Amino acid sequence: MSSVLIVCRGNWDTCTEIPYILKKGGYSRVDIYCSDQSWLICNKFYDTWYKSETSDQKFIEGLRGVLNQHPYDWVILGDEIALNLFNHEIKTDSEFLKIMPLTKPEHRWVLSSKIGLSRFCKKNNIPCPGYQVYGKESDCEKIKNDLRFPVVIKADFGWGGDGMFISETYDTFVRAIHKLPVHKHVLVQEYIEGTEFPVEALFSNGKLLMYQTSSIRKFSGHRFSFTTQRDYFPCPDLKDYLEDLGEKLGLNGFTSIGYMFDPRDGTYNLIEVDMRPNSWTAMGRFLSPDLLDAIRYLSEKNPAVPFQQKGMKNKTKHLALFYKDFRRAYWEKDWKTVVWWIFDVKGFWRYIPFYDSKLLRKVTFSIFNEIFLAYKAKYFPRKTKP
């Protein structure tokens, strides 16, 4: 009997389909630990819901209590808030290995830290863009002398593209200093004018089980916001990069990785590693190789038999996220895509969660409620007292 616990601290929609793929992949028990406001409870495929408390300390104590009662085979921290919280809280290697998505506690400083990832890459000879850390105005001279512009500025702890912007020249960087958080270090990284390759991968004890590579069709907003449409295709060139990364870092679990291909030297530069599932993770069931094959291997708990990833079919597959992409298309007045969703053009209905009535109700209600409230505010504004 194989068991897994999914833990969410924030109220994100990214993990709503994860219980479904874990069940389909052979896990007999899929439990969740989250608040009553979490999207994670809006599906029919979990077995037990452990309600979390509001405060950080009670959230931590509650999870420890659950883990003391049930020795799960796999604990999945489903958002950056939970990752950051437990990374700061856990003091022993034994507890770290039980909860966190790394098998090498000595690399915990990389978790949720863009600065930490860049330093790790430099230390371990992993290709990544040149960078400097900005903490005070006196750092500007080093940035000017050592980096090639344009540069991208990234808040050390953030997600969804928040706290990121590009400076084309040194002068524009200096003028934009007021945008940077006070008394906090930020990463200033060379911006490579190349092609970005998002990768969804699954690792087990530092070993790469499988990966799925894509290019971006649509962003939800600016170029650093989350994506809503992607093209997936085979990319054997990345296999060695991923195997090297997994072994050196000790990756263990679902991992979302970003590479930027530099056409000047033909190198794939590592720009992002999120050690958690995201909305695209569950979409791996529509691809070949199928993500469910790798999950099934983990659920069978037979490490003596190595996992054999099947080759991906040599063609490109267009995937889209219903909830995120329909909202994007509607508010951007991308009526062509709205029609695709309504009338199943290009087979888009495959990506609507008809298999789960509970999740479908949540998604459709959220979309129409958002539209209704926006129109209500526009055409029937609340009257203010004189």
Automatic annotation (TrEMBL):
The keyword Nucleotide-binding applies. One of its GO terms (molecular function) is ATP binding. The keyword Metal-binding does not apply. Keywords: ATP-binding, Nucleotide-binding. It holds the Pfam family ATP-grasp_3. InterPro entries: ATP-grasp, ATP-grasp_PylC-type, ATP_grasp_subdomain_1. It comes from the Bacteria. Residues 118-300 form the ATP-grasp domain. This is ATP-grasp domain-containing protein.
